[in-house]
What does this fold into?
Amino acid sequence: MSELYHEGHRRWQDRFDARRLADRIEEALSKDVLGPEERAFVEARDMFFLATADAEGRPTCSYKGGDPGFVRWIDEHTLAFPLYDGNVMFLSAGNVLVNPNVGLLFIDFEKGRRLRVDGTAHVEEHDPLRESWPGARLVVRVRVRHATPNCTRYIHKLTKTAASEYVPHEGCTPPVPGWKRADWARDVLPRDDVAQDGPSGPSTSA
It folds into this structure.
C-alpha cells in the first residue's frame, strides 16, 4: 500500500509503465522527516511556493519570500514560516483554517535543485515564534508528511540580482507598496495599515 500515491496517480503510472519507478522513488527518496541535508537546503532558501486549497478542494498557489532562513526547521518533522503583510485577502491562511493539507516547493534556481514538501499546517496569530520574525502577522507550522526531491531537468538557471526591499527587518519599516495608495484601495485600508503615513514604494499591483 502506498502512502504517497492514489488511484489517479496509479492510472497514469500504469499508462506509461512507470509504477515500478514511482514505487522506487517513494521507497528510496520520499521520507516523512527532514534530515540534515533537507534542513540545510530549506534554511538557505529565500523563497518558496505554497499550495493550499479550500474546503471544497479548490486550490491556490502563493509565492512566499523573505531573507534566507525565514523558513525554519523546528524538528525533523516540522517546519515553520511567517506570513507577512500581503494583499489582505488571507487566501493561504484562510485555506489552512478549513483544509490543513499544504504543499511547499523549494527551488534553488542557481544550482538547479528543488524539494517538494507535503504536510498538514496550523496557522496561529499568537505563536511564540512570531516575535522572532519582524513584521510577521501570522505563523504557519507544517507537519511533514512527505519530503521528496524533484527532478531537476527543467529548472531554468536564474541568478538573483537583488533582494526585495519590502522584506521586514528589525528597526526598519519597509516602504508602502504603491497599490495601497491607489484610488481603489486607499479608502478601505485596515485601520492600522502603515500605508496611512509610511513612505511609498514602487507602484505595483496587488
